[in-house]
Hints:
Blueprint: H1 3-9, E1 19-20, E2 28-31, H2 35-52, E3 67-72, H3 84-87, H4 91-101, E4 105-111, E5 117-125, H5 128-132, H6 135-147, E6 161-164, E7 167-170, H7 172-181, E8 189-190, H8 194-201
Parallel strand pairs: 2-3, 3-5
Antiparallel strand pairs: 1-8, 4-5, 6-7
Helix pairs in contact: 1-8, 2-6
Amino acid sequence: MTPSDVEALFTGADGSYRFARWGRPIVPVVFGVEDATLSTVKGAVEAVVTLAGHRMAETDPELGVNLMFFFFRDWEELPQVPKLDRMIPDLAPLCLRLGEAGANQYRHFRFDAAGAIRACFVFLRMDAHLSALPADALSLGQAVQSILLWSDRAFAETSPLARAGGQLVLRPEIAAVIRAAYDPVMPASATDASHSLRLAARMG
Length: 204
């Protein structure tokens, strides 16, 4: 991966560069799935957290849980979830826009004073496309997209996952970006594109 390739992963459609990683241990919870899928999702999160060299915990002292996955059939269901509107600003209008756009997923991040990720809400509308994905592929893909604040275009054309020898794996270059991003000497957040040069230098 060239430095410009790395920069593109964190550069939005408006041209702005924005990077953030988790600043606290990750505590996941999953709503709307059966127990078998629940363990698959949590296993994927644990695998990506281990890759990053980050940590998980049993509880978050401030929020209880801080990485929330919601699986559902229609965007109209979300505003009915108790207290969710307290955590997601303008939840009802947001769901209306996402429904009109035909979106099947959305991630909402919250940040601490240093700009690091303090919480992430992952919303997955199980349309025909997502429902056709194997549970391990869906879970690992979402875990990867939740471990960093990627740009909205990072994986629009190319999945972060690949098949190797019949096994589902994270693309090596994406794994390298994640490991570099969690290098202790790197900042928890950045808005200057020169940050991508430092990332690329640590990818080896």
